[in-house]
Amino acid sequence: MAGKNFLSRVVTPFFVVLKHVVNQPVTHKYPYERLKGFDRTRGRIVLDIERCIGCGACGWICPDSAIQMKFVEGSKVTHPAIDFLKCSFCGLCVEICPREALKMTNVVELAEDEYRELVYTPEKLSIEPNLKDILPMMKYELEPVITPRKMGYSRRRIEK
Ligand code: SF4
Ligand code: SF4
């Protein structure tokens, strides 16, 4: 009985600590390390103004009234502007677009200091998000590695 007590109180915790010293941590240090986006991540939407014909279907389908059609200098038709504070990233606007002018990226970083900066004009919406501008302090991109024996990340150093 005493032997079993010693085992459960001293030896077992020792092996638990050893296991976590050897294994990679499951948590990561965002924003210095960032989990790589997945292909189907519903992140920031990008507009291809050249493809957009201004039909307004995206604004019509949006369940959150997050889309308003706006004129852009030099264009005869209106194009979508998106209020990302209202948008729930459902993806309906992307699916309904007959010209495939909208796409979702895997960039989910959208925090801004001011509300109005989250209302993206068609011009702002057409700029592809660049992670290096958003997270200049990021050093590693992490990709999950899940096997039957272990769960962890492979780390890829980001070149500056
Ligand atoms: S993703 Fe959904 S909620 Fe966001 S703008 Fe498109 S339709 Fe509206
Ligand atoms: S549905 Fe597509 S083509 Fe129509 S206004 Fe929206 S982005 Fe432009």
Helix/strand-derived category reads: alpha+beta
- The level 1 CATH classification is Alpha Beta
Q: What's the order of the H and E elements?
A: HEEHEEHEEHHEE
Into which percent range does the helicity of residues fall?
A: 10-25%
Radius of gyration: 23 Å
Q: Treating each run of at least 4 consecutive H or I residues as one helix, how many helices?
A: 5
Number of domains: 1
Shape: elongated
Distance between the termini: 60 Å
Main beta sheet: strand number and arrangement?
3 strands, mixed
Q: Low-confidence parts lasting 5 or more residues at pLDDT below 50? A: none
Bound molecules: iron/sulfur cluster
How are the secondary structure elements laid out?
Layout (H helix, E strand, L loop, with lengths): L1 H21 L10 E3 L9 E3 L9 H5 L5 E5 L6 E6 L8 H5 L5 E3 L14 E2 L1 H4 L5 H4 L5 E7 L4 E7 L3
Parallel strand pairs: 1-7
Antiparallel strand pairs: 2-5, 3-4, 4-6, 7-8
Bound molecules: iron/sulfur cluster (2 copies).
The site of one iron/sulfur cluster (SF4) has 12 residues, from helix 2.
